[in-house]
Specification:
MazG-like_dom; mainly alpha; 12 helices; Helix Hairpins; globular
Length: 270
């Protein structure tokens, strides 16, 4: 009988067996054996972002590899759960399958599929609210994971609060709040401690995320796009400096700022 580790005809059992062997306390990899849930969690987050990055760049070949890396993270965590007698891959897969069936009664049950997207979202939220109640999560904000990236968690918290009516009615009130928070940040910078400045800065970021929600924008996607634009333009500045035989460290702010404007104008004309 062939070794499962080398049997490509059973991809999922093969991957689970590979991870089991890597974690074997006697014959496994020393690094893998030392890991725990907390030490692996940052890699899980990183791999999820790399999946998103491949999608954003439209690189489907790389996406395949990144999805494999992300799948490995699930297998890693379920192997550790199995070793501790907490759960295993089968129980995790069955739990998400049960959840998807429960949350889609219009597909797997006898509910009608003839409903708007808005009604489907409302139904979804009712189902999730019932799930939270079953877990003794009665608060509006219960279940919003603390470990989420801060910008994403801010957005989720704001959406939850908005569902129960705790929200500004228009973007005008949000913009007014941004002006208020900006003023408080300037005052804090001039008169308060660094910790208080950080608090005011966080308040401003939180409201900026709320503005994106009110405008129908994804703050994370908008910031990623801004990062990409900055990268393109700064690389353009570096290219223009290189044509002059310089690097940024051999230039100054005045020269680089002028080149930045050139790059920006060229990108707009392009």
């Amino acid at each position: 009988m062939p070794d499962l580790v080398y049997d490509a005809s059973q991809p999922m059992p093969r991957l689970i067996e590979i991870m089991r062997r890597l974690r074997d306390p006697d014959t496994g990899c020393p690094w893998d054996i030392e890991q725990d849930f907390a030490s692996i969690a940052p890699y899980t987050i990183e791999e999820a972002y790399e999946v998103a990055d491949a999608i954003e760049r439209g690189d489907m070949e790389e996406l395949q590899g990144e999805l494999g890396d992300l799948l490995l993270q699930t297998v890693y965590h379920t192997q550790m759960g199995s070793e501790a007698g907490l759960f295993d891959f089968a129980s995790v897969a069955n739990a998400i399958s049960d959840k998807m069936i429960s949350r889609h009664p219009h597909v797997f049950g006898d509910e009608s599929r003839d409903k708007s997207a808005e009604q489907q979202v409302a139904d979804w939220e009712q189902i999730k609210a019932a799930e939270r109640a079953g877990k003794a999560q009665g608060g509006t904000l219960d279940g919003v994971a603390v470990g989420l990236p801060a910008l994403l968690r801010a957005l989720k918290l704001q959406k939850r609060a908005a569902r129960v009516g705790f929200d500004w009615p228009t973007t005008d009130e949000v913009l007014d709040k941004i002006v208020e928070e900006s003023r408080e940040l300037v005052e804090a910078r001039d008169t308060l401690t660094q910790a208080e400045v950080e608090e005011e800065y966080g308040d401003l970021l939180f409201v900026m995320a709320n503005l994106g929600r009110h405008l129908g924008l994804d703050p994370e996607a908008a910031l990623r796009a801004a990062n990409a634009k900055f990268t393109r333009r700064f690389e353009g500045v570096e290219a223009k400096l290189a044509a002059r035989g310089k690097t940024p460290s051999q230039s100054n702010l005045q020269e680089m700022d002028a080149l930045w404007d050139e790059v920006k104008d060229e990108s707009r004309r392009g």
